[in-house]
Amino acid sequence: MTCRGPRPCNISTISHRWIGLRRRTDSVTTTACAVAYAEIARVDPSIGSSILVHSCLATLLIAQHGSEKQKQNYIPLLARLDMISTCKGAPGLRVAKIENKVALRIVQNGDVMFDNVFVPDEDKLPSLTSFQGFVEALSFARIMVAWVSIGVAMGVYDLCNRYVTERKQFGVPLAAFQLTQAKLVRMLGNIQAMFLTGWRLCKLHESGKMTTGHASMGKAWITLRARETVALGRELLGGNGILTDFLVAKAFCDMEPIYSYEGTYEINCLITGREITGIASFKPPTLKKRSFL
Ligand SMILES: Cc1cc2nc3c(=O)[nH]c(=O)nc-3n(C[C@H](O)[C@H](O)[C@H](O)COP(=O)(O)OP(=O)(O)OC[C@H]3O[C@@H](n4cnc5c(N)ncnc54)[C@H](O)[C@@H]3O)c2cc1C
């Protein structure tokens, strides 16, 4: 798959190029990376999500924290998709396929269980010594998840805009009704606002000024608006909005896990809330014994 730009580039390498594994002149900015993810998700959120996890979490962590040998061994293979990031077999590691998902159905998710897993020294990422090291990759991934949801919303808007001009009721296309137009405008307004917020996040990241609170607020707010946008799109299609034959229903379902993965709406709000108030509210206050008076 290629993305448009001054030079064609393989989409699986975009994050790796961003992290500067290649010559500086060949690197891709955060903004370019984000727009590429949005364009993939505009067509298929499952593929967008798969490439995102493969590139932004697995490969990025090796690039940022791996030894030179690990980078040489894995990154070219991962970048060409000759190797897919996945759990390698190890004693104590168990992976069970999660069945019966209603969304992102071509993505195979696993329940991963660790029981005294032995990790040989050559598989450890030398400079990843705390969870904090992982937070930087997570924040980058959160920007990209936000852009995946912008892509999903744009894809639904495209489909709806076409559908309402083709389907006729009461002798006119649905697009002729004022209430239909109002929904389209709400969707487009959301997309514009999501786009600008996502663009600002990318610029903050590129200038080294983005905090974890920025990334979390961006992911939470943009996915919330995207969820509203795809719900409006589903409404616009009436009964056809729940049929798999029409891709709006698929995107409507796919938006749900995107709203929840890479930090749920609530947890991302709490991360930003902690940053702006200085108070962590992840755990409730200690419960006091109830009085029976
Ligand atoms: C398609 C998909 C792919 C995923 N990929 C990965 C992956 O690659 N790696 C990975 O590690 N995980 C992955 N996840 C897991 C995902 O990150 C979790 O589902 C998510 O973090 C929520 O955790 P949970 O499902 O355990 O829900 P729970 O923790 O049980 O939460 C249920 C609800 O309670 C809310 N809640 C929980 N705690 C609080 C609190 N303190 N305050 C307020 N509300 C709270 C949550 O926001 C949520 O709405 C994936 C999930 C999906 C659906």
From TrEMBL:
Residues 135-276 form the Acyl-CoA dehydrogenase/oxidase C-terminal domain. PROSITE patterns: ACYL_COA_DH_2. GO terms for biological process: fatty acid beta-oxidation. SUPFAM superfamilies: Acyl-CoA dehydrogenase C-terminal domain-like (SSF47203), Acyl-CoA dehydrogenase NM domain-like (SSF56645). Residues 29-80 form the Acyl-CoA dehydrogenase/oxidase N-terminal domain. Keywords: FAD, Flavoprotein. One of its GO terms (cellular component) is peroxisome. It comes from the Eukaryota. GO terms for molecular function: acyl-CoA dehydrogenase activity; flavin adenine dinucleotide binding. Its cofactor is FAD. The keyword Amino-acid biosynthesis does not apply. InterPro entries: ACX4-like (IPR045008), Acyl-CoA_DH_CS (IPR006089), AcylCo_DH-like_C (IPR036250), AcylCo_DH/oxidase_C (IPR009075), AcylCoA_DH/ox_N (IPR013786), AcylCoA_DH/ox_N_sf (IPR037069), AcylCoA_DH/oxidase_NM_dom_sf (IPR009100). Belongs to the acyl-CoA dehydrogenase family. This is Uncharacterized protein. It comes from Rhynchospora tenuis.
